Amino acid sequence: xxxxxxxxxKRSEARHLLNRAGFGGTPEEVDVFHSLGREKAVDAxxxxxxxxxxxxxxxxxTLEQTIADMQGRLEQRRTIQEKSKGLSxxxxxxxxxxxxxxxxxxxxxxxLESQGWWFKRILVTKAPLREKMxxxxxxxxxxxxxxxxxxxxxxxxNELFRDHAFGNYRELTQKIxxxxxxxxxxxxxxxxxxQPNENFxxxxxxxxxxGEGNYTEEDVREAARAFTGFKLNxxxxxxxxxxxxxxxxxxxxxGKSGAFNGADVVNLIFKKDECAEFMVRKLWEFFAYExxxxxVVKSLAPSFRSGGYEVKPLLREMFxxxxxxxxxxxxxxxxxxxxxLVQMLKELEVEEPPLGLPIMGQTQLGQVLFMPPNVAGWDWxxxxxxxxxxxTRYNIAGSLIKGSGMKMxxxxxxxxxxxxxMNRRKTVEGGSSVPDFAKIAPETDRADTEALxxxxxxxxxxxxxxxxxxxxxxxxxxxMKGENFTNETLGELCHLMLSTPYYQLC
Length: 506
What we know:
Helices cover 58% and strands 2% of the residues. The chain is mainly α. The strands form two sheets. Strands 1-2 form a two-stranded antiparallel sheet. The protein has a two-stranded antiparallel ribbon with strand order 3-4.
């Protein structure tokens, strides 16, 4: 086991935990979190009983509506076939194309709705660690709506990740190999005895469970045979295994022989020591810091493995360890775009972001929910930052400070047009809000500019920043003292702080 952190529980440590195991919070939320003490704070994050969400699934994502939609599309195809009988080839093709384009528009709209829905859920959740782990699993078992094409299957997978957020890693893996979205993404529904899908077997071992170098090419070939025969019923989303397409012969995997099926392969994988170490390392890098020492991994992996791959006890041990609060971890992680956007909204206490900011911000910063770039997920850490994305972050901060909407680039006109239609409906429902600078810094607090800047530094950074930067903030505030120190001016000071390299870290 890792050495536990001391009984002294600093406010900066509480803020660090709330940032890493969630998406940050207001100063008041950090104070409440700190008042719990270290162990109770960790337990509060892990205990999601009774923490229901005030954000139900979109109506189209429910099981009943999904089945109705699939049956409706089947009936639509039959209708088109009937109408096509008396038409010329060109007219029949035009009819089919019109129907197909209508379905594509509907899927694009639902894709945008799903992305906006999840972002809003992350923003308002009372169980932030559950959403953080849902994001982790979405990146780990990466699938993209661009290939899956059916938003409802992505939403169902999202709910699977949420239900197993810090449950059992092995059980989740067993479910993901039969998940409809994953099957479509990695083409396992086409894997048969005649043509086994070796790509899926390789990704399962290399990216999902063991890591590179902990299996052989023979293991991949034999495991691919075990995963043959899975079939997806597109009418109800269920998965079954076809006996005629499944290879029921004897396979040799990791030195063991048997007529293994897909579930057997997963169980064989989880008997290997490398499996626990692989996931411990990945979770540590996600929550603490990159390239952890072997001693950290070796300390955590045995109890994770002996505990049957339950994630909750592992997270608790991580969050209570002294290594998690080491200077190497504190304020050292580059915020991913979703973290950056949500944390900034929370710290500015904006409950309803400006129109277009969630989806357009994700698009411009390179992390769109439900759209990881490939099966390996997103590149993290310093990969989030380059000259363009850093400038974009500064511009987004300015848009948020002013409460102005965002526009898509020239290459995103179709998405932009759809967002505009959705945003017009949203405006009727109540529109957007801007930061309440009178609450963030009441006018009575603005006379003492040094104290004001220190409070804002605590709000936005949480860890000490270079004295040169602090003095530049104070100098700007001094130049605006008196009648010029309006809410708009305070917003410009906040924008100045948010447009620094230090704010890109948490």
